[in-house]
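step=encode ok
step=design start
structure_in=
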């Protein structure tokens, strides 16, 4: 069942902080042999219609997704929703709140930068995004293009990361709320890149336990360009809590995510894939 298909269930387009348009992303995924692709932009489904059209043309199976920012014990935790109905009102209300939070944060970040003598940040990110979904990478691009930092990583290291002068915290919703939005939209909730939060084992276990209690079903076992040890560790975590396993590159574009679409590692045999009960075509076109 679906054994021969290549899944990439975590990717970004320019509707959030990715480089490619939704159509370009679908084409790039097809080119590298991805059979089933989820578009999971941060807090928006705006790219789905365009991606869906392109996917039909190219014979690629597209999964509607989203990556929701949440707050858990002061950690920013990302929850991926898969197979959601993008037309679900309840989900979209939640995503509108997220976009508002992001706009408010953007104003505050721009003020911080202004205090540091850096003018014009808000105008730049607004221009980049048409005011829709503003992310920190948009500020990073502004800082890089203005010559304030050498690259995106530098923008985070010197300005935008937690503890840096232009960092502004956000009251993201809690995990249960995000899971509720996803489930209302008929989707499955997956804990994104569980090892990237740098939690102790005790805290990570607690996080997974609470996520599961809230209705979370899956864990990203293959997340971005992680090593085999990390895959194993995440697979053990999924197995321990009897959760389904997902696989996603977290692709943001070739410049940002050098490892590329499609991921390197397969799901270990011990895993129950999140797509276990999905109705998919057996072979790609
Ligand atoms: P936001 O959701 O607006 O707070 O932005 C978070 C996004 O910034 C993540 O999804 C990453 O794509 C990107 N990001 C976070 N930390 C870094 C970093 N150190 N270097 C480059 N990109 C980063
Ligand atoms: Mn991102
Ligand atoms: Mn993420
Ligand atoms: Mn992501």
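sequence_out=
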């Amino acid at each position: 069942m679906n054994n021969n298909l290549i899944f990439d269930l975590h990717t970004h387009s320019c509707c959030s902080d990715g480089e490619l348009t939704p159509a370009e992303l679908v084409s790039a995924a097809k080119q590298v042999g991805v059979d089933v692709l989820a578009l999971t932009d941060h807090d928006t489904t705006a790219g789905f219609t365009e991606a869906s059209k392109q996917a039909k043309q190219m014979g690629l199976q597209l999964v509607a997704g989203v990556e929701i920012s949440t707050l858990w014990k002061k950690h920013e935790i990302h929850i991926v929703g898969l197979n959601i109905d993008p037309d679900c009102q309840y989900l979209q209300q939640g995503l509108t709140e997220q976009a508002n939070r992001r706009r408010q944060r953007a104003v505050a970040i721009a003020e911080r930068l202004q205090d540091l003598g850096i003018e014009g940040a808000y105008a730049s990110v607004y221009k980049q995004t048409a005011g829709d979904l503003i992310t920190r990478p948009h500020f990073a691009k502004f800082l890089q293009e203005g010559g304030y930092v050498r690259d995106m990583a530098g923008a985070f290291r010197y300005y935008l990361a937690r503890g840096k002068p232009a960092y502004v915290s956000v009251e993201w919703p809690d995990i249960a709320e995000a899971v509720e939005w996803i489930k209302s939209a008929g989707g499955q909730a997956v804990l994104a890149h569980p090892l990237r939060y740098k939690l102790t084992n005790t805290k990570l276990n607690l996080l997974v336990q609470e996520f599961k209690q809230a209705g979370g079903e899956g864990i990203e076992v293959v997340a971005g360009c992680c090593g085999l040890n990390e895959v194993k560790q995440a697979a053990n975590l999924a197995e321990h809590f009897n959760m389904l396993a997902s696989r996603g590159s977290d692709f943001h574009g070739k410049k940002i995510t050098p490892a590329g679409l499609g991921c390197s590692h397969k799901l270990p045999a011990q895993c129950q894939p999140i797509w276990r009960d999905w109705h998919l075509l057996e072979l790609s076109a």
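step=design ok
step=annotate ok -> The longest helix spans residues 89-115.
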